[in-house]
Amino acid sequence: MAARLADRGYRVTGLERQSWPPGQFPANVELVVADLHHGIPPMARRFDFILCADVIEHLLEDAKVMVQLRSLLAPGGRLIVSVPNSGNLYFRAMILLGRFPQEDKGLFDRTHIHFRVWSGWVELFVNSGYTMTDVRLTPVPFTILRPSPGVFLYGLEWLFWKLACIWKRLFAYQFIFVLESLNE
Length: 184
Prior knowledge:
Elements: H1 2-7, E1 13-16, E2 30-33, E3 47-53, H2 62-72, E4 73-84, H3 89-96, H4 118-127, E5 130-138, H5 150-166, H6 168-171, E6 174-181
Parallel strand pairs: 1-2, 3-4
Antiparallel strand pairs: 4-6, 5-6
C-alpha cells in the first residue's frame, strides 16, 4: 500500500516492527523501524494523513498510541483507521455456538489483542482526543474464499455490503474511520 501511494506522488513514511531484507522494502518509501508496543518513536515531521490499516487491534496500549498519533498530525491532518467489527453477525454466531477460533486473519485473527464493537471503537477514539469526520464500512469478504469467486459470492458480498449500510453494528465486517484531532 505504501508503494502504491508513493507511486502516486505522496511522500510516504512507513513504520514497521522489523527491518526488511535489503531490496524488499519499497525504495520510494521512508522506513522507520519501530515496535508500536513501545509507542511511536520521535518523528522529524508532522503528517497530513496517517493510515493505520488493521493495526490498532494488535497493540497492547492502543489508547496510548492513539494519543501519540494525534501529536503527529499536521494542522487539519486526518487519521484513517480500519478496525474489525467484533459485533459482526459471524463473530456473534461463533461466540453463541461456544466457539472462538484462532485464525491467521480476519475477525478471529490470533494476533488481535482488542475485540471491540462499534461503541468500543468510538469510545477509544473520543477518549484519545479525536472527532469522527467520516465512517466507511466493508462487507464480509466472501470473494476471497475462492480464486475465481463467481457471481454467487460477488452477489453475497454485495448483499452484505447493503445490509452493512442499513445496520452497520451487525453486518459491517470492518469500520474505516476518518478522524481529526479535537485540538484543531
